[in-house]
Amino acid sequence: MSDSISGSLELTNEWDRYWKGSASANAYSAGGSKHPVLQQFWRELFMSSLSEYPHGRMIDLCGGAGAVLSAAEGLSVSEGTELISLDISVSALELVVENYPYVKTIAADAAHIPLKSETMDVVSSQFGIEYAGEQAMAEIARLPRKGGKLALVLHHSDGLIQQECAASADAIARLIDSDLIPMARDMFEKGYAMLRGGGSNDFHSAARAINPVYRSLEPIMDDHGVQVAGETISTLYNRIAEIQKNLPRYEETEVVDWLEAMASELPAYADRMVSMCQSAQSPEQFKSFCTHLSEMNYQIQQAHPQQVADTTLPLAWMLVAERS
Ligand SMILES: C[S@@+](CC[C@H](N)C(=O)[O-])C[C@H]1O[C@@H](n2cnc3c(N)ncnc32)[C@H](O)[C@@H]1O
Question: In terms of CATH architecture, what is 9-159+280-323?
Fold first, then answer.
């Protein structure tokens, strides 16, 4: 299938960077896109859809590395069934091709899907379409043919994932504001200069200056837990202390490259966390989308927040609707 990119280059790059860096990693650590409840939801959807539409066309929008389509693995897919993954990130689609060679891919902005209306049997999206804005929410509703289905898992405002992303965004913003990373780099460079025979004063005064900044990570971990932001804060906290204590054991380039990579990746990571929070659907937005679908002759089969064990916070909005 031909690739066509019509999305904004900046957006493409941001997601592309994510997929290049994280390979097939989960989008979120707590209860993310591979949560067993969600896997079960998609498994059941594919089991029923593959028999209901034996030669069907199924498209997963904003599919990332294929978390949704992976639920179809091992199920008997009759010849003629088309599984398609659409995403704005070419790197994400490369992972899909690598892992699920039978899946076709389309690189496109979900707000401008290059497909004719009423040509799909199943249209799915998990934590994806809501990133592409209101236009994309309207765009997807035109794709299912009569008798076809729309199955969506959407971010829930005030939900588990939203809470995790808000905490991560706050933690990373505080880390960036603290200037710890450039200060650590400066201190270590002075330490290596000292090891090469230079004086020790510069290193010791840099170490004194960094101490309160280093300690400022402690309240971040107190507020959000050591797991926050994929353990970025706790890893920095532990590694900086370890390297400082045992400087000769580490190569200077290894230390500097690590800090440089952190410094360049953190702003994009924080932006992604913020964009997740912004894309999360409030009860009003979800209700109004359901009303929009009903007006387009969809029969709503499921529309509810998904609860999971050990928390009162919902994981996601679940929506299944059939076009009549
Ligand atoms: C949080 S990830 C979810 C990926 C996958 N659905 C999953 O459950 O793991 C969001 C996905 O939406 C894609 N995306 C963001 N904005 C998009 C847009 N405007 N058009 C198409 N894809 C987009 C990203 O590249 C990313 O793969």
Answer: 3-Layer(aba) Sandwich (3.40)
